[in-house]
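Let us walk through a complete example step by step. Step one is to write down the protein sequence. Step two is to encode the small molecule, zinc ion, as a SMILES string so that its atoms and bonds are unambiguous. Step three, shown after the inputs, is the structure prediction itself.
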Amino acid sequence: MKQYIDDNKERFFEELFSLLRIPSVSAKKEHKADMRHCAERLAVLLMEAGADEAAVYPSDGNPVVFGKKTIDPKFKTVLVYGHYDVQPPEPLEKWDSDPFEPVIKKDPTGRDAIYGRGANDDKGQLFMHIKAFEYLLRSGKLNHNVKFIFEGEEEISSPSLPAWVRANKSMLKSDVILVSDTTMISEKVPSINCGMRGMAYLEVTLTGPDKDLHSGHYGGTVANPIQTLCDIISSLIDKDGRVTVPGFYDDVVELSRSDRAQLARAPFDMKEFKSSVGVKALRGEKGYTPLERIGIRPCLDVCGIWGGYTGEGAKTVLPSVAHAKISMRLVPNQSSAIITRLFKKHIEKIAPKYCKIEVKPCEGGEGFLIPISSPAFQAASKAMTEVYGIQPVPSRGGGSIAVLADMQKILGVDPLLMGFGLERDTIHSPNESFLLKQFFAGMESIAKFFEYYDN
Ligand SMILES: [Zn+2]
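Step three: the predicted structure of the complex.
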């Protein structure tokens, strides 16, 4: 693949840039035509790379691109997932170059990188798959069937894809869902993500008196909703850092000693971690390391709290209402719906009689696990060991890609997360970039994955 990259680099850049120039921002309605344009461009690129068929399909939201190549129906099928939508580029003034006019230039460390919105997330990463496929096919080395599914709504939490996948289940029949939409620990520490957390997100509203009251006339005799809500919230985590909602941990799978030892291979510098977030000490669930608390344990956070008077100067008010937004990151096997129900039941039970409490679910999704022992994971590990010269570390991401959990459930196929992004790429932020070194190493790793994944 190395030689093929060398011989075709300029064409690769031009093709990728043609995708990056399309402002496919899913968050804004005004880009509807761009979404379609980008999907169509991808279908063309798939056909040019050698797919038997590739087309743009309607969904309830932005179109889905699906393409495939059948080498032999008896062979295993790899389903490549990616997303062509991008985050809004704002704030524009913080970009050093036009977010939709990609350029290759030196990064602050003097290395070449592609700059532009989507350079990494996820146009750059999905493009590596198209080119690895093209190389394998043209060199007669493709011994698998390959299917591609590219969606245009990942950045707005994939509202339409699960229904589309359900409706086209047989078309998507495959043995593994291969995804490059995550990061590695660092360039020197390649890693393969073996699980992600799910989430339950809720808004809590607590109402006391039926109107805002004078804090002089009523203070001290009518309970203050903000204080009551704070009391409730502070009781949700105990002194050992555990969530107190009854049943919260019931479905959490405890990791075996050997799995924990595997995860502990990831390097972690406590001092650097603390300084990177500007805190003097860390706090979390007793009995687990910081990386375990992020990767394999659930947690509860207050994302926002508001109520009463927050304007300039003093207004002596005893507010009628207080609100909080609460997120719970969940681990595989915990169900977002069950946790939401348990949380609601608990809050309603502990809320004092003198107030009214409402819990409104906002967003949810399931986490998932990828078995390290699976043939696909092992093939990816072997491939990356060869390209990077070091065996990749299995890592557990604290974030969520809920649609992959849905696809895993609907299709009954495990995802495999071979991500080549780095923290330095500042995805979702100004000056998003992708190191050329990673871009090429990604293509090589993907091509080798096919070589080692038993057909
Ligand atoms: Zn992404």
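Step four is interpretation. The chain has a mean pLDDT of 95.
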